[in-house]
Amino acid sequence: MIAMNTGTPQATDAAQKQLVSELALRADSCRTRGRYNESEALFRRALELAERFFGENNLPLVPLLNNFAVLGKYSGNFDEAETCYRRALTITERWLGAENGEVATLYHNLGGLEHARGNYAAGEPLARRAVEIRRALLGEEHLDVAADMAALAAILDGLGRYDESEPIYHHVIEIFEREGGSENYEIAINLNNLAALCAAQGKLEAAERMYLRALAIKEKLLGAEHPDVAVTLNNLALLVKDQGELTRAAAIYERALTIFERALQPTHPCLLRCRANYEKLRRKLARSAANTEI
């Protein structure tokens, strides 16, 4: 039993716990629906109350810190996300030791954060540590191990090590389909990443099929206006452009950009990349139109 640092009456304790729990649930709900600004305000309030109630170094803070950091990754607040993840890791290792599932989750998330930053070399040892811990606990075929392996594969992609990442994607998609059916979020994420790998190898038709399937799953699970849907739209638009379908690509970019601009901060890397891609395509279309007129 973990001792809580509080001197408040029991009824107040229960009310405070309930309030923290409700704020955290609302914050996470807003995050999953792509409402990042609302989510951030709720998480900050929940964390402030939790620190006051539980103290700054107790286990009940860990889920809040982790989920706030997940939000930071998606909203582009990378430095704050890393601070929260590492603080959560320190607390978890202090209370539970270094070889448990919660520690593996935090290493997984730290690796994913470095992937989002584009720091693939820094992310690889973090992702491998997550796989190592979780595989020792759960075995090779567990869904959580598959999720860790998929995160490692994405980092290997960033390092250009496609021969290592491609078989991992196929393996984890097989596990996710067997254990969770053909329409779940993990399949969508890995199809998106495998499609990008196929595109890099010049397998454009296969890549488009995968992007379209990933897009359909994300739209069904998250809704058509979620920023994670826009990630796949941006990737699909880039592929369609490379196939020479410029007008179709422009329409896809427009949809992705509209979603990103509504959901993300103006400096978010996904928004900036999508806008740059779209503007580059628009210039190409304008030049093509000018040459046709001549």
Explain this structure.
With 294 residues, the chain is mainly α. The protein has a domain of 83 residues: Tetratricopeptide repeat domain (Serine Threonine Protein Phosphatase 5, Tetratricopeptide repeat, Alpha Horseshoe). Helices cover 82% and strands 0% of the residues. The chain contains 13 helices and no strands. Helix 5 runs antiparallel to helix 6 and helix 9 packs antiparallel against helix 10.
Parts with pLDDT < 50 across at least 5 consecutive residues: 1-11
Shape: globular
CATH class of the domain at 203-285: Mainly Alpha
Task: Report mean pLDDT, rounded to a whole number.
Answer: 93
CATH architecture grouping of the domain at 203-285: Alpha Horseshoe
Cα-to-Cα separation, first versus last residue: 80 Å
Order of helices and strands: HHHHHHHHHHHHH
- For the secondary structure, the number of strands is 0
Question: How many strands, what sense, and barrel or not for the largest sheet?
Answer: none
CATH topology of the domain at 203-285: Serine Threonine Protein Phosphatase 5, Tetratricopeptide repeat
Oligomer: single chain
Percentage of residues in strands:
under 5%
The helix fraction, in percent, is: over 70%
Q: CATH superfamily of the domain at 203-285, please? A: Tetratricopeptide repeat domain
The class by helix and strand makeup works out as mainly alpha
What is the number of helices?
A: 13
Radius of gyration: 21 Å
